[in-house]
Amino acid sequence: MVNASRDLLKEFPQPKNLLNSVIGRALGISHAKDKLVYVHTNGPKKKKVTLHIKWPKSVEVEGYGSKKIDAERQAAAAACQLFKGWGLLGPRNELFDAAKYRVLADRFGSPADSWWRPEPTMPPTSWRQLNPESIRPGGPGGLSRSLGREEEEDEEEELEEGTIDVTEFLSMTQQDSHTPLRDSRGGSFEMTDDDSAIRALTQFPLPKNLLAKVIQIATSSSTAKNLMQFHTVGTKTKLSTLTLLWPCPMTFVAKGRRKAEAENKAAALACKKLKYPMDSSWISPELRLQSDDILPLGKDSGPLGDPITGKPYVPLSETEELRLSQSLLELWRRRGPVWQEAPQLPVDPHRDTILSAIEQHPVVVIAGDTGCGKTTRIPQLLLERYVTEGRGARCNVIITQPRRISAVSVAQRVSHELGPSLRRNVGFQVRLESKPPTRGGALLFCTVGILLRKLQSNPSLEGVSHVIVDEVHERDVNTDFLLILLKGLQRLNPALRLVLMSATGDNERFSRYFGGCPVIKVPGFMYPVKEHYLEDILAKLGKHQYPHRHRHHESEDECALDLDLVTDLVLHIDARGEPGGILCFLPGWQEIKGVQQRLQEALGMHESKYLILPVHSNIPMMDQKAIFQQPPVGVRKIVLATNIAETSITINDIVHVVDSGLHKEERYDLKTKVSCLETVWVSRANVIQRRGRAGRCQSGFAYHLFPRSRLEKMAPFQVPEILRTPLENLVLQAKIHMPEKTVKALLSHDSGSDHLAFVRAVSGWEEVLRWQDRSSRENYLEENLLYAPSLRFIHGLIKQFSENIYEAFLVGKPSDCTLASAQCNEYSEEEELVKGVLMAGLYPNLIQVRQGKVTRQGKFKPNSVTYRTKSGNILLHKSTINREATRLRSRWLTYFMAVKSNGSVFVRDSSQGSGFTHPGFPRLSLPLDDGRRATISLSDSDLLRLEGDSRTVRLLRELRRALGRMVERSLRSELAALPPCVQEEHGQLLALLAELLRGPCGSFDVRKTADD
Which residue from 912, 914, 996, 989 is spatially nearest to 952, judged by alpha carbons? Predict the structure, then answer.
C-alpha cells in the first residue's frame, strides 16, 4: 500500500492543485472548496483523511500519512487516479477546455446547467457532521481502512468543531441566486460558509468600527447601536447574528470559537455586502434618483486621501478647527522645559525674516550652511507661529528627506524638542514603516517617494499648509520630479507654501526656476575641523610613496580604493588620535564589508573594545538606528557608511571623519543602453558635507584619502541624476500624475535573484511561518542562505504591490493577488507561462545564447558560449542560476537589469524562456506572404529568427491578435465585470497558450571551456 501511494504521488506530484484545476475549469469557478471536502481523523500513529468528492458524482476516497498534509495529498492523488480513469484528464494528466467538460457531463448524469449550482441536499464545505459508521470504502484507487475506537472519538471531536447552523446550509443552496432570502420583516437574510467570512475579514480587518462609521455618516447619527445589533449564542462554537436596520433590514450569520471572532466575521460579511450595489427594491423611493441624474463615475469621484494621516480627507469644520487650535495653544503653553533648554542655533536669529518671507511668498529658498539647524528648527518655527496666533489647526507641514534614516531620526529629534505634550503632533512615514501624527498642527517627515505617492490620491495636497523639501541640492531624480509637480500644483492650491532647503548648491538656479523667489542665506556653525590630505596621511603612517592604486590617481581619473590603507588609517587614529567616534565614508557595500573584515582581523581579541557599525541602504532600519546610540565607556565607535550618512543626520560623538572621496553613482551607458553603477569621485560640495560631520558637536578631524591636487579637479557640484540615468521610470511616473490619464502604469520591482527561485524562497518562508516553530524557521533560513528581515521587507512589498494592482482596477480586492484559489491566479503554477509573460514584459531585455565563437586570430572555439543582447555581448554573473547551467531549455534568456562594472556588462538575474514565447513580443514581425516558408523575426534586432510554414505563421499571427484583444479588454474592465462569454474565451486562450508553452522544445546543451 505504501509503494502504491508513492507511485500515485509520482504520477500526480501536485494532486490537490490538479483536482482544483479540473473542477475549476469544468465549472468555471475560482475554487473548488464546495466540491472537495477533507475530513480529518487523528489516529494513534497516523493521520487519516477522508476526501468527499461532490463532482462529477459523490465518491469518497481515503488517505493516510504521518502529517495531515501528507494524508490529504494521498487522498487527492487517489482522486486524481479516479478522474483520469473517468476520462477527465488526458494521457499526460493535461486539462481539457470547458466545452469538452460539458460534453463529458452527460456520462455522469450531471447536466451542464446543474454544475453551476449546489445540489439542494448537498451540505456545504464546512459541514463535517458525519457518523463514522457512514464512511464507506472509497471507489477504485481509494485507500480504505476501518476505524478503531480511538479514531472514532477523534472523528467525533473533529466533527463537533466543524458543525454549523442549519441556516448556513440553507444559505449555501441560495448562494448563486441574485434574490436574497427575506425574513418575516421583509428584510434580507445573508448567510454563507466560513471561508467566505474569513475572506471578507481579510478584506475588512476592522469591520465593526467601519460598519459603525458608515452608518453614522449615512444617517447623521452619533451612534450606530440602534441600527446594528449582535446576538450571539453557543458554548464551544459561537454563532453570531448581526441585524442591520440600515439601509434596509438585513441579517448576517457567522460562527467562531469566541464571541468577538464570530461578531467580526458577521460584520465583515455586512461590509462586503454594502460595498457592492444593492438591490433596487432595498432603496426607499425618496432616495432613488433618475438615471439621468446619476453622474458617470470618473477619475475624481473617489475620496481624496489625507496626506498627513493617510485616511480619507474630510475638511475640518469651523467649530472643530477652533477647538483644535485652542487645544494646541494650551499644550504649547505647558510644553515643559525641553523647548526652553534647547540650544541656540544659528537659524534662530533669522526667525522673523524666514517666517515673514514664507508668509508673503509662495516659494522660498533657504540656503543654510551645515550646522545651522534648518532641518529641525524651521518646521518648529512654523508650528509655533501658527499655534501662538490661535490658528494651529491650519498648520500641517510635510517635510521630505532624501533617505529613510534621516526622515525617522529627524522626526524623533523634533518630537523630543517639542516635549511630551506635543509629541503626537510629530510623525514620520517611510516605506513599510509609518507613525503618522494627529491631524491639525502636524509635522510629517517622509521620503520624497512617499510624497509622490500621496500626490496620486490628493493631487492638490488639500489639507496641507506647507511643503518643505530638504537637501534639495542633492538633485536626485525623484526630488527634481517632485519640484516639477509642485510648481504646477501652485495653480491648483495657491494657499500652499513651498520651502526649499539646501546646504550647498546652485541656489540661484532654484530661485530662477520658481520665478525669482527669494533666497535667504543662513550662516552655519561648525567647530574647528583640522583637515589632512593623502600626502599628510602617508607621512603620518610612515609611507614615503603613494600606494599603487592611489599613485594611479595622479595621472588618470580611474577610481580605485585601497582598503588596506583605509584600515591602517582607522587603526592609526584609534592608537594616536583623540577620543571619539570614527565615521568612514566608503563607496559601497563591498568596500564596507572589506574594511570591516580587515578591522576585525587586526583587532583580534580586543574587538570587544570597539563598536563597528556598517550603514547601508540594504540594512534594516532598526540596525541603522544603532549608529545614534552612545557606546559604553572605553568603547570606540567606528561607523562604516556610504553617502547615506552625509546629510540630514547628526551622530553626536563623531570626532574623526575618513573620506575616501568616492561614491557609487548610477549612470547610463549610451553605447550598451544599460545603467551602470560606477565608482566615481565626489564633488567638492560632497567633500564639504563630509568634513562637516566631524565638527557638529565638538572640534574634529577630517582625513581625505586623495591629494590636494585632486580636490581642485573635482566638480563643484554633482551632475543631477536626471541627466545621467534612464528616464523610462520617470516617464511612467509622469503619466500617473497627468490628469487626463485614467489607467495608471505600474513600475516593476527589482529582483535580487532569479525570478521563480525567489518566488519559491518567499513561498517557502510563508509556509514555514505557519508552522510556528522557531527551529524550523532558523533551519530554513540557514539551509537556503536567506535573511529574515529581507523576507519580511519583501512580504511588505508584496502587500504594497497588491494594493497598487487593486487601485489600478485589475483585481476585485488586494487579497486576490496572493490567494492561490483566486481567478486571477488560475495559471500562477504554469511556470512556462509565467516565464513567457516575463519575457514579453521585460522585452527588449533579451539574451541570445550562442554556442561557439571565432577569436580575433580567426580560430573557432566550438565549446565557448557567448551571451548576446541587442546592445552587444554580456556576461552572466555568478549569482544567477543559469551561469552554471549545462543544459538550457531554449536559446533565449530574459533579465530585469544589466549593470556595467570594470568595463564589462553583467546580468545578475535571468530566466529561461520557451522558444514559443515570441507571440507576446512587442516588436515581433510576422510576414503576410503566402509562400510555403516564412521567417519570423524581431523588427528591431536579429536576436530571434525562426522559419516555419505559412500556415503556422498565420496561426501565430491570429494568436498574437487574440492575445492583444484579451490584454486590452482586461485593462479596460475589471475581471468580474467581463461577460461570461468573454471570460470563457480568455480561459480557453490562456489554456491554449499554456499548453503551447508546455509543449516539447529542443533543449540546448551548454559546453563551456575553462576560460568561460
Answer: 996
Residues contacting residue 285 through CB under 8 Å, at least 6 positions apart: none
Instruction: Give 599's pLDDT tier (boundaries 50, 70, 90).
Output: very high
Does residue 569 surpass a pLDDT of 90?
yes
Phi, then psi, of 602 in degrees rounded to 5: -70, -35
**Residue that has been written with the C-alpha cell 577630517 in this structure:** 702
Query: What is the per-residue pLDDT across 394-433, written as a single tens digit (0 to 9) for each?
Result: 999 999 998 888 899 899 989 988 888 888 999 999 887 8
Domain-wise residue ranges, the chain: 2-163, 167-278, 318-522, 529-714, 755-825, 834-1005
Contact between 609 and 584 (Cβ < 8 Å): no
Match domain 529-714 to its CATH number in 3.30.565.10, 3.40.50.300, 3.90.180.10, 3.90.190.20: 3.40.50.300
Sheet holding 47-53, edge to edge: 36-42, 47-53, 59-65
Helical axes 980-998 vs 950-972, angle rounded to 10°? 130
Please report, as a single letter, which amino acid is at residue 512.
R
Is the previous residue joined to 844 through a cis bond, with omega within 30 degrees of 0?
yes
pLDDT at 977 > cutoff 80: no
Radius of gyration of the chain (CA): 33
Q: Angle at CA 379, nearest 5°, toward 375 and 385?
A: 145
Q: How many residues does the chain have?
A: 1012
Topology of 167-278 in CATH? Double Stranded RNA Binding Domain (3.30.160)
Beta bridge partners of 674: 669
Q: Note the pTM of the prediction, 2 decimals.
A: 0.50
Residue 223, helix vs strand vs coil: coil
pLDDT band at 771 (very low <50, low <70, confident <90, very high): low
CA–CA separation, 400 and 418 (whole Å): 19
- Other beta carbons within 10 Å of 401: 27
Q: Is beta strand 497-502 parallel, antiparallel or unpaired with respect to 466-469?
A: parallel
In CATH, 2-163 is 3.40.190.10: no
Total Cβ atoms within 10 A of residue 261: 16
Amino acid found at 967: V
